[in-house]
């Protein structure tokens, strides 16, 4: 599949699901989702409609990130929450599903995007935030985060979500 021609920031949406983060970030940065990573059949059909022309790179656990070096400006990821959530087995960030976070961190380190937008369940604060922050720091990124109730932004339910925003770390000259 040929890459869409655009001068807008190019967004890679990892663990894309139905594309919600990409839909939010596109107008925020005047960007375009050019690549998605999703394996669930029904979600892939929705992504085809939402992001026409975006290439689906498939399974993040099997992808060679070097193929996208220099082609991505922004990464979004709503990495799996099943092992982190109170409704799951509570294995944390290193669980079988939520452990996909490591591939997200690897993509960030290899692709060096200008911005990284992340989303997960609010309980990530006590079941993996330390790992997320450390992994991002190890690849040279600073993380800022917050939690919001869905109802705070107009949804009918009160479920809390965690949102992270990472940028390349700023190095300071000696003495500052």
Key features?
single chain; 176 residues; alpha/beta; Rossmann fold; seven-stranded mixed sheet; 4 helices; 7 strands; methyltransferase; transferase; DNA (cytosine-5-)-methyltransferase activity; EC 2.1.1.37; C5_DNA_meth_AS
Q: Strand count, sense and closure of the main sheet?
A: 7 strands, mixed
- Measure the end-to-end span: 48 Å
Total strand count, please?
7
Count of alpha/pi helices: 4
Strand content: 15-25%
**SSE string:** EHEHEEHEHEE
**Radius of gyration over C-alpha positions, nearest whole angstrom:** 16 Å
Structural class category: alpha/beta
Instruction: Specify the CATH homologous superfamily of the domain at 10-78 and 108-122 and 140-168.
Output: Vaccinia Virus protein VP39
Q: So what's the overall shape?
A: globular
The helix fraction, in percent, is 10-25%
CATH topology of the domain at 10-78 and 108-122 and 140-168: Rossmann fold
The appropriate CATH architecture of the domain at 10-78 and 108-122 and 140-168 is: 3-Layer(aba) Sandwich
Spatial ordering of strands, largest sheet = 3-2-1-4-5-7-6
């Amino acid at each position: 599949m040929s890459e869409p021609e655009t001068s807008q920031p190019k967004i890679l949406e990892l663990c894309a699901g139905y594309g919600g983060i990409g839909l939010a970030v596109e107008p925020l940065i005047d960007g375009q989702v050019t690549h998605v990573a999703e394996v669930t059949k029904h979600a892939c059909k929705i992504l085809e409609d939402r992001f026409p022309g975006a290439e689906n790179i498939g399974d993040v656990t099997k992808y060679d990130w070097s193929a996208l070096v220099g082609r991505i400006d922004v990464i979004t990821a709503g990495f799996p929450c099943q092992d982190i959530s109170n409704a799951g087995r509570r294995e944390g960030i290193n669980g079988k599903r939520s452990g996909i976070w490591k591939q997200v961190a690897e993509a960030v380190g290899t692709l060096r995007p200008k911005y990284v937008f992340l989303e997960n369940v609010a309980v990530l604060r006590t079941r993996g935030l330390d790992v997320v922050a450390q992994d991002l720091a190890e690849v040279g990124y600073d993380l800022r985060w917050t939690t919001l109730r869905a109802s705070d932004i107009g949804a009918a339910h009160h479920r809390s979500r965690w949102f992270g925003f990472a940028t390349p770390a700023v190095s300071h000259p000696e003495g500052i």
